[in-house]
Write a structure and sequence with these properties.
Peroxisomal Thiolase, Chain A, domain 1; binds coenzyme A; 379 residues; ten-stranded mixed beta sheet; globular
C-alpha cells in the first residue's frame, strides 16, 4: 500500500500570546484539508503529536480534545515522544494507512509553550531526559553542550563553526513568512550572545515557541500529492552517560540507514532536508549521522555554504529556518518538517525554494537522541 501527503498547513511559529491551542489547531487542520481539497467528513482518524500539554497546561486526552474541537467524530490518538512527537505521530498515521485500516487521516502537531514561565518549560522539557540527568539538575542546553564539547575535542570543531549553523538557519528563516525570527545574524553576533550552557550561547539555541502544523495523509495519489517512500523510527538510551559514543546519535544513524534501504536510495540522492537543529551542534551531528557529510566534516562544509539555499552543491539543509530560526513548538516541529518538504517538492516554497528538489528527508529527534524519526518523501 502506498502513502501520500495530500495537503499541508503550518501556522506562524513564535510567541503567539493571543492564540489558543484550539485556534491554532483549527488553522492548521482546516488549512491542510483545504490544501488537500478534502472534506472533513472524509477524515477517518486523527493523530495528535504533542509533548507538554499535560505538564504545562493540565490538559491530557488530546486525541478526543482536538477531535471534538475540530468536529471530527473519528478515532483519535495522542502520540508523545518528546520533541519527536510530531514525527512519531506521522509514522503511526502512515502505518495505519499501510495496514489498510484507514484511507484518509489527519496528523496535527501542536505545542503552546510561551504562556508558561521559562523555568517551568525547562523542567517540563527535562521529562524527556533520564532520571539521573534530572536529579543532577541537567537541562537540554546543558546536555547538548556536553555533546558539543566532545565534538570539539574529537574533531576540532569550533564555536565559530557552530555559529555558522545559526547564521545559515536565521538567513533561511528571513525567507519564511511563518518563521519565529526574521532577523539575519552574523557569526560575531552569535559569538557575543549571552552564554546559556558553555559553549552554547543564546543564538546557538532553538527558542521556546508556540505553533501548529497539520498534514493530510491518504492512500490515493492526486496531482499535487507527494509520496512517503520511507518512515522509520529508532531509539537509543535516554541518558547520555549510557551511550558508547557521544560524537554520534546512533538512533539517527539506524533510522536513516533503514530509511535509505526502504527508499532504495542513499544520502547523495537527497535534494532537501529538514533536520533537528534544536542546538547548532545538533545540526552538525545530524548532517554527519544522516551521511550528508563524513564524520567530523559537517562543520567546515556548513561554513563554506554547502547546505545553504542558492549555494549548496548537493543537499540544502533546513530551508524553513530549522528549529533555530523557524522556532521549535516541540510537538509541532516534526509535522512542520513534512509540510516544508511537501511545499519544496511541489515547487511552492517561494523565496526559499530549493531548485529542482525531487527527494526530501525529514529528521526529528526526541530528547538528546533517544528517539529519532526519519521520513523520505519523493514527488
Ligand atoms: N534564539 C534567538 N533569539 C532568542 C532565543 C533563541 N533561541 N531565545 C530568546 N530569544 C530572544 C527573544 O526573542 C528576546 O528578544 P527581544 O528582547 O528582542 O524580545 C530575547 O532573546 C530574550 O528572550 P527570553 O525569552 O527572555 O529568553 P530566555 O533567556 O528566557 O530563553 C533560552 C532563552 C535559550 C534559554 C530558551 O530559548 C531555551 O531554553 N531554549 C532551548 C529550548 C529547548 O531546550 N528545547 C528543547 C530542545 S531538545
Amino acid at each position: 500500500m502506498k502513502t501520500f501527503v495530500a495537503g499541508v498547513a503550518t501556522t506562524k511559529f513564535g510567541e503567539l500570546w493571543s492564540a489558543s491551542p484550539r485556534g491554532l489547531a483549527r488553522l492548521a487542520v482546516f488549512g491542510a484539508l483545504k490544501d488537500a481539497d478534502i472534506d472533513s467528513k472524509d477524515v477517518q482518524a486523527l493523530f495528535v503529536g504533542n509533548m507538554l500539554s499535560g505538564m504545562l497546561g493540565g490538559q491530557e486526552h488530546l486525541g478526543a480534545f482536538f477531535a471534538e474541537e475540530l468536529g471530527l467524530s473519528v478515532p483519535a490518538f495522542k502520540i508523545e515522544g518528546a520533541c519527536a512527537s510530531g514525527g512519531l505521530a506521522i509514522h503511526n498515521a502512515v502505518n495505519s494507512l499501510m495496514s489498510g485500516q484507514y484511507e484518509t487521516v489527519v496528523v496535527l502537531g501542536i505545542e503552546k509553550m510561551t504562556d508558561h514561565k521559562p523555568e517551568d518549560v525547562a523542567t517540563a522539557l527535562m521529562g524527556a531526559g533520564s532520571e539521573e540527568e534530572r536529579l543532577a539538575g541537567a537541562t537540554f542546553p546543558g546536555l547538548y553542550a556536553i555533546l558539543a564539547r566532545v565534538h570539539m575535542r574529537e574533531f576540532g570543531t569550533t564555536e565559530e563553526d557552530m555559529a555558522a549553523v545559526a547564521v545559515k538557519n536565521h538567513y533561511h528563516a528571513t525567507l519564511n513568512p511563518n518563521a519565529q525570527f526574521h532577523t539575519a545574524v552574523t557569526v560575531d553576533q552569535v559569538m557575543r550572545s549571552s552564554k546559556v550552557a558553555d559553549p552554547l550561547k543564546l543564538l546557538d539555541c532553538s527558542p521556546i515557541s508556540d505553533g501548529a502544523a497539520a498534514v493530510v495523509l491518504s492512500t490515493k495519489r492526486t496531482k499535487r500529492s507527494v509520496e512517503v517512500i520511507a518512515s522509520v523510527v529508532a531509539t537509543d538510551t535516554l541518558g547520555l552517560a549510557q551511550r558508547k559514543s557521544l560524537t554520534e546519535l546512533s538512533a539517527t544513524q539506524k533510522a536513516s540507514e533503514k530509511a535509505y534501504t526502504l527508499a532504495g536510495m542513499d544520502a547523495k540522492d537527497i535534494d532537501v532536508a529538514e533536520v533537528h537543529d534544536c542546538f547548532t551542534i545538533a545540526e552538525i551531528l545530524a548532517t554527519e549521522d544522516l551521511g550528508f557529510f563524513p564524520k567530523g566534516k559537517a562543520a567546515s562544509a556548513i561554513q563554506r555554504g554547502s547546505a545553504t539555499i542558492g549555494k549548496a552543491k548537493r543537499v540544502v539543509v533546513n530551508p524553513s529556518g530549522g528549529l533555530k530560526g523557524c522556532g521549535h513548538p516541540v510537538g509541532a516541529t516534526g509535522v512542520k518538517q513534512i509540510a516544508e518538504l511537501v511545499e519544496q517538492l511541489r515547487g511552492n516554497a517561494g523565496a526559499r525554494q530549493v531548485k529542482k528538489a525531487r527527494v526530501g528527508l525529514a529528521h526529528n529527534v526526541g530528547g538528546s537522541g533517544a528517539t529519532a524519526v526519519v521520513h523520505i518523501l519523493e514527488i
